[in-house]
Amino acid sequence: MSEYNAEDVRNVALVGQAGAGKTTLVEAVLAAAGAIPAPGSVDKGTAVCDWDDMEKELKHSLDVGITGFTTHGKHINLLDAPGYADFLGRALSALSAVETCAIVINAENGIEMQTQRMWKAADRRNLCRMFIVNRIDADGVDLGELTAQIRQTFGAECLPINLPADGGKRVIDVFFNPAGEGADFSSIEEAHSQIIDQVVEVDEALMEVYLEQGQALKPEQLHDAFEAALREAHLVPICFCSATTGAGIPELLQILTRLMPNPAEGNPPPFMKGDGANVTPVTVAPDPTKHAIGHVFKVVNDPFRGKIGIFRIHQGRITTNSQLFIGNARKPFKVNHLFRVHGSELNEVNEGVPGDILAVARVDDIHFDAVLHDSHDEDHFHLSSIECPVPLFGLAVNVAKRGDEQKLTDALHKLESEDPCFHVEHNASANETVMRGMGELHLKVLMRRLSEQFHVDIETHPPSIPYRETITAPAEGHHRHKKQTGGAGQFGEVFLRVEPLPYEGGFEFVDATVGGSIPGQFLPSIEKGVRMALSEGAVAGYPLQDVRVTVYDGKFHPVDSKDIAFVTAGKKAFLEAIDKAKPAVLEPIVKIRISAQDSHMGDLTGDLSGRRGRISGSESKSHGRIVIEGEVPLAELTSYESRLKSITGGEGTYTIELSHYQPVPANIQKQLADAYQRAADD
């Protein structure tokens, strides 16, 4: 039997900018709860959640660290998410396993890029949220001004649930026991009234007691209304602490155990059933008596333990010897061992209840985002996918040693299975294998794993740019394919028209034939021929997109017409139409955010303009830093990492995110088309 029930579980993801002190905060909470004898250190490499060798070397989290502990009858799972933008996919994946998203802010740096990103991501998933302002004892911080900035940026619903005092040396509770004096800003009475007023607004009965009868409300009376306010984002608590000195850590632990929602009190996870257009929402409740349903939010390929799937139980119980299906698989696997995760340790348990975060090892078919269940009633269940940005930073890779090609393929596949923002693609036209991630650091870490864990040495070079092609005008095409070989011949004739679709319109194939001019059995063959041309391109060898193809006439022969004849006729008729439809090459345009000292602003904006970029805005930050936002063609960023380091003395950083595709200038289209033609002639 489990030592606790689902009502006793609290799942909290700590997210925020790198350097906010999330991992140190986990250490302080673990020590305060008695789960470890003393806090570990990121600098000394003794932190529970930063246990990987590369994390110890870089002194930053590179993946989601997981730990759990039981205190005051409650079991708390803490997920320590990486703060570097390069590992955003891993940070986002943690949100699918929790009810509460705790956004950690470094009091010295204030609201940063990742702070806003993770707020938006938590909002999309409808999670309960809180802010934890860390390093409140740092010299020169203005916590009153920072609180005002938080409320201005994220809403007036953000309210302090405790207050720093004596320059951040201690913290005063304003919810459970609003007593004391010496707060660094605001007054205890005012802060207490603000948070109570906010909570009772979601409960008319409580509001009546509070306003009309003038009764003071105890924390126990406010519990249900507090949970409702969290669910509705009507309240976002702001908690102050210092992970290094321990100020505010007992208060934070009390907030986590007494106020943060259990699995039944948070908003229900967005589970769906079905595929394609036949998708309907389903209710998955934290009921231990129902069928077991879990969701895999992290996969680790461990050289000693094999493939490890870490999952959150959303419904039912899972025990050792349970038989679980993975997604729509027809054959279950047996849970021989069930583990609770504590940093690098896997501690064996016999049972998990709703809300538990557990792991299974040596299950080859398990994969990221998989749904685990114990009944075919849950076939085709899936959790609404996290909205990961498209990885654009790319490197083309080759093996350094001949004969390692299959070894590289297997290793890249394993790395891809772990990370939602790492993709591997093969560019047939350029004969390139390209790995794409969120930035230079992201790919450097993965390349090091290729060498150290999988023992594959690689060579890299800049990849080809992922251009696309489209058409800008309607046109018609026709082709008659006729071939006589002495016996039965080949015959197929196709008339079709092409039309441009809006951006991201994809591809549409329409049958508008009448009178049986082309038998229905040959239409899939025509579409196959068209799709072959779509993938091969027509102008410069890049895939075609945003095109509607309508087949409106044709001819067939009762004996000689075959599938291959209509594949050929469809492809050539399509290419003829494309040639008349004013084809255009499209290039990816990315949103870019550059963070640097404001003294470099002129050089940075000038450099971006020289790369065909467009500046959309800038924002001043603390400590003389500035964030520049704009759009720039991806093709112009091939050497940008080194250029940015040169301009800023190595301290500038940037992130990119796909914005849209747009036509390249005429001179660049001609260069690409000429190069494609030369390659075809060789």
CATH topology of the largest domain: the name is Rossmann fold
Q: Given the C-alpha coordinates, what overall shape results?
A: globular
Strand content: 25-35%
The parts where pLDDT drops under 50 for at least 5 residues are none
Q: How many angstroms separate the termini? A: 71 Å
Q: State the share of residues found in helices, binned by percent.
A: 25-40%
Taken together, the total number of domains comes to 5
CATH C-level name of the largest domain: Alpha Beta
What is the topology?
Elements: E1 9-15, H1 22-32, H2 53-58, E2 65-71, E3 74-80, H3 88-94, E4 100-106, H4 113-124, E5 128-134, H5 143-154, E6 158-160, E7 162-165, E8 170-173, H6 188-200, H7 204-211, H8 219-231, E9 236-240, H9 249-258, E10 271-273, E11 280-281, E12 293-302, E13 306-315, E14 318-319, E15 323-326, E16 333-334, E17 338-342, E18 345-349, E19 351-352, E20 357-361, E21 371-373, E22 381-383, E23 393-399, H10 405-418, E24 423-427, E25 432-437, H11 440-452, E26 458-461, E27 468-471, E28 475-483, E29 490-500, E30 507-511, H12 523-536, E31 547-555, H13 563-580, E32 583-597, H14 601-610, E33 614-620, E34 625-633, H15 640-648, E35 653-663, H16 666-681
Parallel strand pairs: 1-3, 1-4, 4-5, 5-9, 6-9, 30-31
Antiparallel strand pairs: 2-3, 7-8, 10-11, 10-22, 12-13, 12-21, 13-20, 14-19, 15-16, 15-21, 17-18, 17-20, 23-25, 23-26, 24-25, 27-32, 28-29, 29-31, 32-34, 32-35, 33-34
